[in-house]
Amino acid sequence: MQLNSVRMAIEKTRNTLATTGPILKGSVSAVMLGKRKRTRGIRVAYLLTYKGDGNRTTSMYVKKAQVAEVKTMIRNYQKLKTALNKLVELHMKLFKYRQMIKLPNTP
Questions:
Q1: Strand arrangement of the beta sheet that strand 57-62 belongs to
Q2: What pLDDT does residue 106 have?
Q3: Has residue 32 been placed in a domain?
Q4: 46-94 pLDDT tens trace
């Protein structure tokens, strides 16, 4: 990759980071609670599970109406994480390229 294309890719990735939107870390799962007492069927609850402070697993109740929104926020987190890793790789390429041709330290 040439220097200009690396810089353009860095700028594109920075824009991705800036426009990601609301994020949540973790996963959503449906938990079966057992049979209903008055009607037929099984009770279902949705839980958001994530690693919190001290690498401690935490679960949080999510209303059924919010499951789609929470899943979108989790996808945003994954996009953000991927973009951040890509940005690190691009900066490494830029750093190596600058070392080879002895450019001044510019982003």
A1: 27-35, 42-51, 57-62
A2: 56
A3: yes
A4: 999 999 889 999 999 999 999 999 999 999 999 999 999 999 999 998 8
Domain count, the chain: 1
Domain that holds residue 71: 3-101
Q: Which residues lie below 8 Å from residue 50, measured CB to CB, with a gap of 6+?
A: 24, 25, 26, 27, 57, 58, 60
Q: Cite the DSSP H helix spans in the chain.
A: 3-18, 67-101
pTM of the entire predicted model: 0.77
Enumerate the β-bridge partners of residue 28: 48
Using left for φ > 0, alpha for ψ between -120 and 50, and beta otherwise, residue 21 falls in left
Q: Find out whether 20 and 76 touch, Cβ atoms under 8 Å.
A: yes
